[in-house]
Amino acid sequence: MSNVARELWRVVEPYHQVAYRSPEAAAAYEALGLSAAPQQYFANRLAVLGPIGATTAAAVLFGFNPAYVGSVVPAVWSIADPRAVCAARQEAAGACLRRVIPGIDSSPRIESFAATARALVERLDYAGSPIGAAAYDQAYPSDPVVALWHSFTVLREHRGDAHWRATAAHGIDPVECHILHAADGAMPEDLLQRVTGWDDAAWKAATTRLVSRGLIVAANESLSLTHDGRITKRAIEAATDAHADSSIQAVGVERVLDLREALRPWIALIMDADIIGAWKMREALWRDE
């Protein structure tokens, strides 16, 4: 079942990502006065929780330097009301999806896709999932294109919350998680450090901790996982996947896999549009290559 959860994620993530740095999203956030990329990112992720403070924001996001989060939150809420941000990102997502997926409105299956995704989110367990639960509590869009995006956003945030719980349960802290990720070859180390706001001292200390615990090897300015590191990484990912199992089972594995397969051409169009920033680096994951 957990493999099905991961396969579903491979279409959920790119579809959800259009509300971050697409031209439509950037323009929508700029219209609210959010001109800087960190303002746009944190407002987008956190608006469903309301005008929360920096400590709460850093806690639910887990992997960001609290000082970096605090440089944006809560000041961002004096620029843009969270409710306005929620409305703007939905509108931007719909506009972007209609641009990059020609004929999406006339697809004979858009209604059924949205219905399957909604069935999944209605059967999730939201205990311990603050961002996922807050996203789920938003009014459900009547527009099926945006409704599918909304449900996929709930699924993505629920998975993200589950991932951080699993990460912490395996003894990996908010800095170490990114270094472990880089050592696995998922994304460049310098990119992960830059976008999460950790300074060199914190990054170096976390690297040293992981080396001393036998989870990574750091040599010649590169990182790699050890055998124990690979076991830890796989265990975290398996635990993350498992949080969606009951929902998938309730909806039906065949129905979920049909959704995943049917959306592959749309995901390819999203990738071709080159609008999802750093996730482009994981193109093979989204394209089945």
Relevant terms:
Arc Repressor Mutant, subunit A; 289 residues; mainly alpha; globular; 2 domains
Tell me what you see in this structure:
This protein is mostly helical and 289 residues long. It folds into two domains: 2-168 and 235-287, no CATH class; 169-234, Orthogonal Bundle (Arc Repressor Mutant, subunit A), CATH 1.10.10.10. It has 17 helices and two strands. It has helices at residues 2-21, 23-31, 37-46, 54-61, 66-70, 82-100, 110-122, 130-136, 144-169, 176-183, 189-196, 200-212, 227-242, 245-251, 253-262, 264-273, 283-287, and strands at 216-219, 222-225. The protein has a two-stranded antiparallel sheet. Strand 1 (216-219) and strand 2 form a beta hairpin. Helix 1 packs parallel to helix 16 and helix 8 (130-136) packs antiparallel against helix 9 (144-169). It is globular, with a radius of gyration of 19 Å.
Brief characterization of the structure:
Helix content is 67%, strand content 3%. The protein is mostly helical and 289 residues long.
Count the helices. How many? 17
Number of strands: 2
Averaged pLDDT: 95
Report the span from N to C terminus. 22 Å
User: What share of residues are in beta strands?
Assistant: under 5%
- The H/E string reads HHHHHHHHHHHHEEHHHHH
**Sheet/helix structural class:** mainly alpha
The general outline is globular
- CA radius of gyration is 19 Å
Largest sheet: 2 strands, antiparallel
Low-pLDDT residue intervals, each spanning 5 or more residues: none
Helix content: 55-70%
**Could you give the order of strands across the largest sheet?**
1-2
Number of domains: 2
